[in-house]
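Our consortium's second objective concerns turning raw sequence data into structural hypotheses that experimental partners can test. To show how far this objective has progressed, the report includes one record in full. It was chosen at random from the queue rather than selected for favorable results. The single chain below, 46 residues long, was entered without modification.
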Amino acid sequence: MLIELGGVEQRRAAVPEVKGGLSVTEVTLRYGVARQTRHRWLRRNV
């Protein structure tokens, strides 16, 4: 079953994935969010 996450939940799930070694591109494709958004999330969580 596919569960759609809200923005906060996406950020909480995506940031550790990038910090764990996945590329921003891979995570962007997984969550369907623009690369700029993903980079903004990472800056907020550094």
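The partners drew two points from this record. Residues 7-44 form one domain. The helical segments are 7-19, 24-31, 35-44. Both points have been shared with the crystallography group to help prioritize constructs.
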